[in-house]
Amino acid sequence: MSPTAASIHAAWRRAEVGAPLPQTGQRRVCAVYPGRYNVAMANLGYQWLFYALAESGLAVGRLVQPEPEVEAEVARHGLTDIDADHPARATDAWFVSISFENDLATLAGLLRLAGLAPRAADRRAGDPLVIAGGVVPTLNPEPVSDLADVCLLGEGAAALAPFLARFLTVESANREDFLRGLADLPGAYVGRFYVSHFDDEGKLIAVEPRDGFPERIVAPKEKTVDPSQTRLHLRAPGAAFGDALLVETARGCIGRCRFCAAGHLFLPYRPADAPASLPDLGQTALGLVGSNVSGHPDLDAWIELAGTNRVTLSSIRRGSLRPAQWQRLVDGGLASAALAPEAGSERLRAVCNKPATDDEILAEVRLAADAHLRNFKLYFLVGLPTETSEDLQGIVALVGRCREIAMIGWKAKGRAGKIVVSLNPFVPKPQTPFQWLAFGDPRELERKLKFIKNELRGVANIEVQSESLRSATFQALLSTGDRRAGELARLVDQADGVRPALREWTVDWRTLLAQPRAIADALPWDRVDVGVKRSYLEREFEAALAGRVSPPCDFRRPCRLCGVC
After folding, report:
1. Which of 165, 430, 436, 501 could form a disulfide with 491 if both were Cys (CB 3.0 to 4.6 A apart)?
2. For residues 24 and 5, what is the distance between their CA atoms, to the nearest angstrom?
3. Strand 194-198 relative to strand 204-209: parallel, antiparallel, unpaired?
């Protein structure tokens, strides 16, 4: 018998470990993740969202992208939630967690499958409100606002709680009046009340508020990180990292890498204290999550929480782990670790403000190899500003030297491992010093990626992975795009692919990709204040082009350098 959406949902619910979500409450809403179930249930932002909605007294149904084998059925009969198989369109609101730009096309598809207009301006009074939050709308709400009625900018409860207080007490059946009443709500960006203006050549010249909406929207931040909130609340064995209890150990990062959105958006760095104990969801591993996990000032306390279980770290920064910590991780069952040199030369790493010599990177690999770590993953960005052919050759050479060191450990253990080289096209991100840069010509990026792949092809114990250039192109157009990029997301859903969507889109997307912005240019996210001063970003941009390194943040002594503290 062929599976149905209901049978798949039932199988998921049976396998999950943790308290089921309440199906009775003041109002019924959907917690939406625009991606597959196995990815959604490993996303701490989404886990926190459905838990917080349930805690507020709402009846909550989780909504994810249907599995491929039931997409035809869902297209015929409509989209339903996981928890009660309730029609997704018969709810008061969709609360959507968006972590990745390309998920906007998936969100457009979910709205379509639910029988709702993907474009916010086309939805009717009785349709559910669509509220988007997370990293993507906080960085740049303009493309998201094509699909969402409101974007909640900021972090966690600081962004959601004020909205829920309004949503639970104010009648929202009249969509226009409810949205108009959000003008004074902290962190609320209601796209229909912000109008984009373009010159005759289609260049953005301003995003102007109307009807009393604020000129500047401050994205609220949480003062501290509470790991009892930002953790797995329902463990799904079939999800990514399905055997692990995932917990947020800190927010933000001290590194100030100039390409990194999370490193600027989540400033200041806020490490969380390790709790006295962890909830029992039947886990056999502990996954420590954050932008700078290995640099946590009390990492040993977090590792000790796992007992004899395996511990994984979502990020490892060069020079932050002691030999004894490497040994504890490997002895506990850690089979793979990721390091991010980012570039093939010390010069280009300085441009990125991620300073490291090749020898320092190799020393970290040596520490892991001495602990008999079997597998490594090395992350590199391709297409960084000022990149030359020597930098590309440097990636190849560095990978080769890492392999030589890893081989020593493999031989001592009597078992070979693997080095996965992850190549990702550089995509400029809003709210970073690199926000004014261009993505570049996709054909040139393809040539660079092909060069590295060819150089490493056939090398034993090396596997090269790279993000689809088509996917990266789509991401770049959405990342720094204006309201028109939301139309592209809808077209990608309708046309079932990026290439046919670009053929239909009437915007000159090649110029958007190739043309860097001037410092004085209007930016789609100009109305958003994430705490980092524009003057700071300008200084860091100039420092990058000059190859100057800026010191890391000292979170113990707040300063006034970037404006966040």
Report:
1. 501
2. 22
3. antiparallel
Contact in structure between 356 and 394 (CB atoms under 8 Å): no
pLDDT tens figures, 154-180: 999 999 999 999 999 887 668 889 999
d(CA 385, CA 116): 42
Q: Is residue 506's pLDDT more than 90? A: yes
232 CB neighbour count, 10 Å cutoff: 27
Cα–Cα distance between 44 and 36 in angstroms, integer?
15
Whether the CB-CB separation of 450 and 284 falls below 8 Å is answered with no
Task: Reply yes or no: is the peptide bond before residue 227 cis, omega within 30 of 0.
Answer: no
pLDDT given for residue 172 in this prediction: 62
Q: What is the pLDDT of residues 311-347, one digit of tens each?
A: 999 989 999 999 999 999 999 999 999 999 999 999 9
Say what the pTM is: 0.96
Q: Which residues, in sequence order, are CB contacts of 325 under 8 Å at separation 6+? A: 299, 300, 303
CATH architecture of 244-480+517-545: Alpha-Beta Horseshoe (3.80)
Burial bucket for residue 495 (CB in 10 Å: 0-12, 13-18, 19+) = middle
Instruction: For residue 355, give the nearest of 556, 552, 536 by alpha carbon.
Output: 552
CATH code, residues 5-218? 3.40.50.280
pLDDT band of 485, cuts 50, 70, 90: very high
Higher pLDDT, 155 or 1: 155
Alpha carbons 208 and 362: distance in angstroms, whole number: 50
Domain ranges of the chain: 5-218, 244-480+517-545
Fill in the amino acid letter for 341. Answer: P
Indicate if the pLDDT at residue 148 is higher than 90: yes
- Residue 359 gets the label, from left (phi > 0), alpha (psi -120 to 50) or beta, of alpha
- Would you list the DSSP string of 84-143? T--BTTSSSEEEEE--STTHHHHHHHHHHHTT--SSGGG--TTSPEEEEESHHHHH-HHH
Q: Which residues contact 510 (CB under 8 A, 6 or more apart)?
A: none
